[in-house]
Specification:
The complex is a heterotrimer of chains A (209), B (411) and C (412). With 209 residues, chain A is an alpha/beta fold. Chain A has 9 helices and 5 strands. Classes of the chains: A alpha/beta (209), B alpha/beta (411), C alpha/beta (412). At the A-C interface, helix 4, helix 5, helix 7 and helix 8 of A face helix 11 and helix 15 of C.
Chain lengths: 209, 411, 412
């Protein structure tokens, strides 16, 4: 059944994937199996995306399927079964109120085992500092879609540095307008303009790949 | 830019007018001038052009005012009042003023059922006209009384405005957008017009507008004939409706203060139809209250007593002295003066019929006599008894009036 | 008054653009210029002032174009895509296009839920932003398909505009009257800007009118992007039927722009980068292609802005007849596009805004030299930024370096 779930999930057969998952969780250890399989499937979808076979629409569809299945799977899991490979504070920087890219990334990152603390959109620089102090993440993800966000990310990182927190964390920037040049300009550690790459690099930054 | 001389002249003219309202004797008798359809004819344009082409209309006014200068600018935009829509949008004070006057292009956009424009619904040499009709049934008084603004918006506007017939339709919303566009453009033009008139020595002074609540019911809702019957059939409802309309009407008039108006124009209509008994019971109480309340807020009134007002003259004395201007049509201004001297500024005196049908020599004599009787003691504004001289008015007769005012108008 | 020299300059600039679109080599490479938020910053005003104060906006644009002249004028009162309202009022050709872009003062009157403006919902120096949202349920596809105009008017408009929430209420009618007033005032102000631009030698406007892939209307305004990609899998036939129904309305709307003098239909694509070639070809491209062909049959050419990566779909342009128009590319490599489309489709773009923001003048000079060296030969190329908006903090010396490089290396 795990293989069938994996296949139907990766093939974007939503109805079939949900049906199998519902069946599987009723078996012994099934909930953990569903979680693992769905994570694996998400990873495969991400790989297919990076290979140019899948596109954003598949990432969105996969994220939606993942959330649907998790909704009935997570309540069945025991405490130790949901392992986290690290924590990330995630938000859209000041001046930018877009959330679509952040949301696609978020579900994929969660599927990969990252504990994502989503602090929202259009965030004052200090919000990132507060969240870092509170959640002590290994990673901070900053997102922006519009070009205005570039300078906003730069200033946010400066404020984090002034708070003495820069060395405790790795920063990955994401969004439609980021690039290697922008990453160097704002002083981040990694950049991604798509969610799959973002998740892969986040895991690398966590030393998990 | 207006020259300093013209600015000075504008101030002198305004001061002359103001002095008369304050019941004093100015340097000369203030003269409103005589305009109307003849302004378009004098410029060689049709009434249609005058109503629909702002540039031609402005040039016509300038030409007329240059040849026939007076103390107030005549003419200006030609249109018909639209109190229904004004009241319906009473809660939107930035818009109510826009509905005050329906000009030709505005009527093309709104399609007001009771308005006729030259070159559209009537001949292109005709005047813009108001044709009342029954837009409210007798059994709707209760609804009107309960919430006049809501009732006017929901029930009457769709009945009186063809392009707002279905308020929620795309056509209605499109109509409002077109209306706004036209008003912004004509507003810009009005500013230009005011600047041009200032160059000729005329200040454009904003005025407010108030209707006797019973006139509003009669002209805009029930139609005169029905209203007169209602007075006998449903006297309490008519009274309650007039009272319910008083507050919105006052609020509307006082919005004029925002644009600096300190005078409300009140054209009466039903006055002539009513016996003193009915007048005093149904018509006068809410009219009087309106005038007094505006006065409290610093706004005087200019009441146009349409037709014969002789039977109701005494009621005017119930107002405090200096309340404003009584503008008379058929009522003899000499008689009015006897009753109202020292209490009410009197306006009128020039019988338009005379100007149309008489000769320059007779008019000279007529004006001489009129001014001889009316000027002493001040508190008099010379004006034609109705605002509109027809296109065919002989120009030499008009000139004779202006010359006579020049000759005999000095205090 | 426009001097004869400036009239001549305007003609030269227009001819340069036209030659490139016709796949020829002009005298110089046509250059769209750079713009966006930086125009306000350069004039020392806030983004809020730029978006709400007509005089300051005009002064800023004029200052910018005097110091950074290009072949087409950038700047002016921008706005956010308000396509729902154009669809809803498509039967009112004098109005539909006027409602399309909702700018700051218009939004004060309409209060659109998708709109964020500087100094209003955002910081005074932020960029205006469009926030997608779900305004239609999946169950409503049939209604949309049956009558897109009626559905957009009756169902969507009240959901996206706070002041048109109750159609037919005094508030809604008042909002429309105010909207009309704002539009008339802006028309007068835009007339002044057009005159100023003509005096600076820019071709008179009216060249472009908007157009949208039918599926983008569903994604951006009705279902929200994540939902429409799910719908494609869940209700493929309905999505297709809806796109076809919307196509008819949008073509009608774009042709109203033509009637008002526009020669080019400008398509900003959005959903393109989300779709696999299979889905793109099945759901997105057919109605987009049909759209381009239909306006072409009426004598218009098209500009297609391919947001994001358009690489996997580039070959679809070859389905169109040569000379149909031009593509503006964001992340897609213009050099790769040239290889595929040369002699068939004019290409615009090439200047990576990220480089302008974070590079140095020397590096930019080199970058531009290489870009023009690769792209100019053979013609059919319009040089421009890959996205329209340079942020306020963009170093002016970097911008100057771009213009100088175009001057230096842009001659054929």
């Amino acid at each position: 059944m795990r293989d069938e779930l994996l296949k139907s999930f990766v093939d974007m057969d939503e109805q079939e994937a949900v049906r199998i998952a519902r069946e599987l969780i009723e078996t012994d250890g099934g909930a953990a199996a569903v979680l693992d399989t769905c994570k694996e499937a998400m990873e495969e979808v991400g790989r297919l995306f990076e290979a140019g076979e899948y596109f954003l629409s598949e990432l969105i569809a996969a994220g939606d399927m993942f959330n649907q299945i998790m909704e009935f799977t997570l309540p069945k899991l025991q405490g130790g079964e949901v392992a986290s490979i690290g924590t990330m504070v995630l938000g859209t920087v000041l001046g930018d109120v877009h959330n679509i890219g952040k949301d696609i990334f978020k579900v994929m990152a969660e599927a990969s085992g990252i504990n994502v603390i989503d602090i929202g959109i259009d965030l004052p620089h200090e919000k990132f500092v507060e969240a870092i102090k509170e959640h002590k993440p290994e990673l901070v993800g900053m997102s922006c879609l519009i070009t205005l966000g570039v300078d906003s990310m730069k200033r946010t990182i400066e404020v984090i540095r002034e708070a003495g927190l820069r060395d405790d964390i790795k920063i990955i920037i994401g969004g439609g307008r980021v690039s290697q040049a922008v990453m160097e300009h704002v002083g981040a550690d990694a950049w991604a303009d798509d969610a799959a790459r973002g998740v892969r690099l986040s895991k690398e930054l966590l030393g998990k790949e | 830019m207006p020259s300093p001389e013209m600015l000075k002249l504008a101030e002198e003219r305004a001061a002359r007018y103001r002095a008369a309202i304050e019941l004093k004797e100015p340097d000369r008798v203030p003269f409103t001038g005589m305009g109307g359809d003849v302004v378009a004819a004098y410029a060689g344009i049709s009434s249609y052009e005058y109503c629909f082409d702002p540039e031609k209309s402005l040039q016509a006014i300038i030409k007329y005012l240059k040849d026939f200068p007076s103390d107030r600018p005549i003419g200006g935009m030609s249109g018909i009042g639209n109190a229904i829509t004004q009241l319906a949008f009473l809660d939107y004070p930035d818009l109510t003023g826009l509905f005050a006057m329906v000009d030709g292009p505005t009527n093309d956009i709104l399609g007001v059922d009771y308005i006729r424009f030259p070159g559209r619904e009537v001949d292109e040499y005709s005047s813009p006209q108001f044709i009342g009709a029954e837009y409210m049934k007798a059994d709707e008084y209760d609804e009107l009384i309960a919430d006049p603004v809501k009732f006017l918006f929901e029930k009457i506007v769709p009945r009186t405005t063809r392009n707002l017939r279905d308020l929620g339709s795309p056509a209605a919303l499109a109509t409002m957008a077109r209306f706004g566009m036209h008003k912004a453009r004509s507003g810009a033009f009005m500013q230009k017009q005011a600047a041009e008139l200032l160059k000729l020595g005329y200040k454009s002074e904003p005025a407010s507008f108030f209707l006797a609540p019973l006139d509003f019911i009669s002209d805009n809702l029930r139609d005169t004939v029905n209203l007169v019957k209602d007075l006998r059939r449903y006297p309490d409802k008519v009274k309650a409706a007039a009272e319910a309309l008083l507050e919105p009407m006052l609020k509307l008039a006082l919005l004029g203060k925002n644009i600096g108006a300190d005078m409300a124009f009140i054209p009466l209509h039903l006055n002539e139809y009513l016996s003193p008994k009915l007048y005093n019971e149904f018509y006068w109480p809410t009219l009087k209250e309106g005038i007094l309340r505006m006065l409290q807020e610093g706004m005087k009134s200019q009441v146009f007593f349409e037709g014969w007002h002789d039977a109701h003259m005494e009621s005017v004395l119930e107002l405090p002295a200096g309340w404003g201007v009584g503008y008379f049509e058929k009522t003899d201004v000499r008689k009015a003066k006897k009753i109202l001297k020292g209490h009410t500024c009197i306006m009128g005196g020039i019988d338009v019929g005379m100007v149309i049908a008489s000769t320059p020599a007779k008019l000279d004599e007529y004006i001489k006599e009129l001014l001889g009787e009316m000027m002493p003691g001040g508190g008099f504004i010379l004006s034609p008894n109705i605002g509109n001289l027809p296109r065919e008015t002989p120009i030499e007769n008009i000139a004779a009036v202006y010359e006579a005012v020049e000759k005999y108008g000095k205090y | 008054m426009v001097s004869p020299e400036m009239q001549k300059l305007a003609e030269e600039r227009a001819a340069r653009m036209q030659a490139a679109i016709e796949l020829k080599e002009p005298d110089r490479v046509p250059f769209l210029g750079l713009g966006g938020d930086v125009i306000a910053a350069y004039a020392g005003i806030t983004a809020h002032e730029y978006e709400f104060d007509y005089e300051k906006n005009r002064a800023a644009v004029i200052k910018w174009l005097k110091d950074f002249p290009a072949d087409s004028a950038t700047g002016g009162l921008g706005g956010l895509d308000n396509l729902t309202m154009s669809v809803a009022f498509v039967d009112f050709p004098d109005l539909a296009n006027q409602f399309f872009m909702v700018n700051g003062p218009m939004n004060d009157v309409l209060d659109m839920k998708f709109a964020r403006f500087p100094g209003r919902q955002l910081d005074a120096n932020s960029s205006r932003q469009f926030i997608g949202g779900k305004n239609m349920e999946a169950e409503e596809y049939d209604e949309l398909i049956a009558d897109p105009v009626k559905f957009s008017y009756e169902k969507i408009l009240p959901r996206i505009s706070n002041n048109l929430k109750d159609l037919g209420s005094p508030t809604s009618l008042a909002a429309m009257a105010r909207l009309g007033m704002v539009k008339a005032q802006q028309a007068a102000e835009m007339g002044k800007l057009a005159q100023a631009l003509a005096e600076l030698g820019y071709p008179r406007g009216g060249g472009m009118t908007y157009a949208f892939a039918p599926l983008d209307y569903i994604g951006d305004h009705l279902r929200d992007l994540p939902n429409v990609v799910l719908d494609i899998r869940r209700y493929p036939d309905k999505v297709k039927a809806a796109a076809e129904a919307i196509l008819e309305v949008l073509v009608k709307w774009t042709l109203q722009g033509k009637a008002a003098g526009a020669k080019t239909a400008s398509f900003p694509l959005h959903l393109n980068e989300y779709l696999s070639p299979k889905l793109y070809r099945e759901f997105y491209w057919p109605t987009l292609k049909e759209y381009i062909l239909r306006v072409r049959a009426e004598g218009m050419n098209s500009r297609v802005f391919c947001e994001g990566w358009h690489d996997p779909h580039l070959d679809t342009f070859l389905d169109l007849p040569a000379g149909w128009g031009y593509v503006a590319l964001e992340k897609t490599d213009v050099r790769k596009a040239k290889e595929m489309l040369q002699g068939h489709t004019c290409i615009s773009g090439g200047i990576d805004v990220g480089v302008v923001i974070s590079g140095t003048p020397a590096k930019i000079d080199e970058y531009m030299k290489a870009l023009l060296g690769d792209m100019m030969p053979g013609g059919g190329y319009i040089c421009g930024p890959n996205v329209g908006n340079l942020p306020r903090e963009t170093p002016i010396e970097n911008i100057a370096a771009v213009y100088e490089a175009v001057e230096k290396y842009g001659k054929y």
